[in-house]
Amino acid sequence: MLSPEILDAAQTAALLHAEAETILQLARNGTLPGTRIGKAWIFLREDVMAFLKEQMYEEASRRIPARHWHADIVRNAKLEGAVIKSLDGRHDHSMLSTGF
Fold it and tell me: Does the keyword section mention DNA-binding (predicted)?
């Protein structure tokens, strides 16, 4: 029986809600810290939790700029639409080609 601080691949998979094969692939390629003892992989709970936190922060940091980027696109489209509407009556679209 392993101590609560040491997890096998199945326990690590259960903790991360993943398939055991996914855990083994992550361990083999060095993404998830672990070591082989004989034929079995073992992981430290603290390393697994650090891996999870890192993955969550990386994923969140990729989503946050995308959300801001989307908001900027929507805001700019609304602004451009308002400019086009205001200029439509005059048929003078020269401001749009200047990068306004």
Answer: yes
Instruction: Render pLDDT for 12-42 as a digit per residue (tens, 0 to 9).
Output: 999 999 999 999 999 999 999 999 999 999 9
CA–CA separation, 91 vs 98, rounded Å? 16
Cα–Cα distance for residue pair 81/87, rounded to 1 Å: 10
Q: What is the CATH number of domain 6-86?
A: 1.10.1660
Going from N- to C-terminal start, the domains of the chain cover 6-86
pTM of the complete model: 0.61
**Tokens 């805001």 correspond to what residue?**
75
